[in-house]
Amino acid sequence: MANINIVILAGNLTRDPEMRYTPSGTAVTTLGLAINRRYRDSKTNEWREDVTFVDVDLFSRQAEIASQYLSKGRPVLIEGSLRLDQWEDRQTGQKRSKLKVIGNRMQFIGGRGDGGPGGGGGGGGGAARPPRREGGAPPRRGAPRDQPPPPQDQDGPPPEDVGQDLDIPEDDIPF
Question: Which domain holds residue 12?
């Protein structure tokens, strides 16, 4: 039987990212993520909300990007794997453990202004929302592109044919 350890979380940062470096120079950023779950209580028929708090570690370039562009309250999507950290408490001598996520991929959610209190001040880098097509639906990935926009300056010279002077053998074209 195969073992699978994949976690996908979408939530808001509970604090500003904390970046540090390992002795070998690798950037490590720790994020606190709050994930809300809304449900209807079957006994009272009222809406309830549970919040789960998860610590996430990001490494290398993603750690640097998270530290630079994310801030408290900002929504983010993390894909990664679970890891159990275990240690002995120096004061009590008791064994302690903590389940955390090692992030493999990070994606900003929403535009620059999205997020809760303190969010959105990260200066950009987030995933911009795709432009809307007629009918209000966003364009699908892999869908054929719409017609190119009309030229801005109709009175100026015609645009140059960019690919005209390229001498590329047909076998080298990947499509």
Answer: 7-108
139 within some domain: no
Residues in the chain, overall count: 175
Averaged pLDDT for residues 58-74: 93
Q: 19: which strand partners? A: 29
Residue 85 has pLDDT above 80, yes or no: yes
Structure tokens at 24: 């070998």
- Check the CA dihedral 72-37-53-77 and report its sign: negative
**pLDDT tens digits along 100-125:** 999 999 999 976 654 444 433 333 33
- For the beta carbon of residue 7, count every other beta carbon within 10 angstroms: 15
As beta bridge partners, residue 85 has 98
- Overall domain count for the chain: 1
